Each structure stands twice: as structure tokens, then as C-alpha cells.
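re the bet — no i am not wrong, look at it urself. input seq straight from the record:
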Amino acid sequence: PRDTLAGYARQHALSWLEDPSNRDEGLDRNFLRHRLLPELERRFDGLAGRIHQVAENLADAAAAMDELGGLDRQPLPLTVFDGLSQRARLALLRRWLNRHVGEGGVSRLALGEFLRQLDAGNDRYPALALPEGRLVRYQRALHLVPPMLELADSYPVKVPGELALPHGRLILAAGQPDCSDPDGQAVLISGPLQVVFATAGQKIRVGGHRRGVRELMRTAGVPPWARDSLPLLADAAGIAMIPGVGVRDAPSGRSAGDWCEVNVRWQAEAR
């Protein structure tokens, strides 16, 4: 308490500085300190000590929840909810959100409804709207998904060249990738190049078969929320490359003058 500190300072002939703002009762902390808490102390003896004890108990419970639930993890495996009651699951989810993004005013009702939806079939994608992005279930874990990006339908690119996007850089160079560059991929292209994004019905010939672009992304483990923003390299013949997923088959009977080899590297930025 202030009186104890001031008494110690006087006893040991210590001087101190007073913060003028400490007297401003327009500030919540000062209103509580000067008006509310003294009245409560007069009414309820030892209240400050009891509040301190409750705060310590809550801190211990929060630390145990963090440790037992592994709340440092992101994404959060759904197994942490196994065997817990709805109230315990709600507390755990709220704690995890506060730790990573802040609740931002998400209501108890909305959190509870989202938890109930987690038991839906694997063909469903339960989602919870957050002030910045969404919380979604995917592959038995909860993922924090950033807000949707604002992207143009297409971007022209040249070789050599680089395209800077809000979520990464696409770097193009002539020839095969350097052996020391594990992220580089080579593709044969013909005609002007552009970057486009996945739409319904897009196909690319891979492994001797025409495959759907979205199907290949899904098979490669690209999460649903990232499929619309993954840059696709396209030329006069169509989709040539899905970075990190697939490269178009080399055209048969091609003329050397019609095609050139391009090394492509996609550097995604963490969001």
C-alpha cells in the first residue's frame, strides 16, 4: 500500500517524485484508487488482500491452461479439446485467441456456436469471424487466417523480372534453377507471360493428364484460404506453373525457337 511505501521512505530519509497525474480522477486507475477502493475496504475488511489472492489464483490457472493445452502452438490441434466440457473448451479457446490475436470483442455466444460446429463432418469448414481475419478448422486443427487480399485479375511479368505482391515475390530468370536454390522450378513458356489466380475450370497438363488447378492445389496440401491468392504463371498456351505444386508438361514436337526455359521462384511472406 502507498502508506507503507511512504512510511519506509520517510524512515530511511528517502526523497521521491510525485506524478501529477496520480491526482487526476478522470483516469480510471485514480478513480478506483481514491474513490471506489477505499469505500470497499471500509465495507469489506481485508478486501485488497482477497483481490490479490484471487488474482494470483487466476494467474496460476491461466499458466496451467497454457502449459496443459499447449497454447503456444499455432495452428491449435483439435485434440486439446478432447474430453473437456463445453465450458472448459470455451475457456481454452478464449485463452488461445487472447494469446495470439486478442479476442477483439468476440461474444461468448459466437465462440460457443463455433465450438459446436467443430463436430461437423470433414466436408465442412466451420469459421469464426475475427476483427482481423477468420478462425477456421482445417485438417483437425484451428488456423488463424488473415484477411482476404485485394489482388488484380492478372499482372504482366517479364523474364528476367520480379513481381511484388502483398503476400510475396515472384522472381523469374532465364534458364534452369541454381542447384543451391531448392525453391526454384523450371518451366517452358511461349509468348507473353502474366500472373493470374485460380478460377473455376482452369486446367493444366501434368503427368500426361489435364488436371484441375484447384484439385492439384488441394492434393498438394495448399489450404483452402490460400488457393485463391497463389500466383499462377500463364503464357499464350495457358497455365504453365503453379508454384510449389506443379509444372506444365513440356510440349511435344516443340520448335526450339518457340519456347524458352524460365526459372521461377515464389517467396511467400508470413502473414
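see?? Residues 144 and 207 are 34 Å apart (CA to CA). told u. also The chain is about 30% helix and 25% strand. so pay up
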